[in-house]
Hints:
Elements: H1 7-36, E1 41-43, H2 50-79, H3 100-125, E2 130-132, H4 133-159
Antiparallel strand pairs: 1-2
Amino acid sequence: MAARLSAEHRRYIGGETLVAVVINALLSLAFALLTSHGVAVVPLWGVHGMALDFAPQVFMVTFATTLAITLVARARVRSGKAAPLGRERGGLLAWGSRNAFLRAVIFGLTATLILAPISAGALYELGRDSLLSQQFIIMKVVYGALLAAVIAPSIARAALTLS
């Protein structure tokens, strides 16, 4: 079990998470509007289906969040605006690559392989074989925000160990 974080670290991670949630919700909104433009109903399956659409969203949210948070954390630690964490306090993700781009790719692919099928399966189990375009847009915004809320704290914590 990782050691308890200081109040300063908790504030930093919370702030980075909030920024990631807002940015990813807005980006998810933009892409959902683009992909659903002129479509009344979005199916779960198929080339233009939600199941397939989860993969790029999960990858891009995780990739961009990892890259941005890692680069920002490194700059803040180097400038003294954020205190670094030792690897033993950085959590599971602290043991990833020190190369920010490679980290982002690895985390993005891992999250996609795990979360995209689970997300499609959840819609299937809920009996949602399609959504109205407006429902699809709302779902994508909420999904992007929740995804960022889930992944950003671990990424931020790990990023503080890599500076």
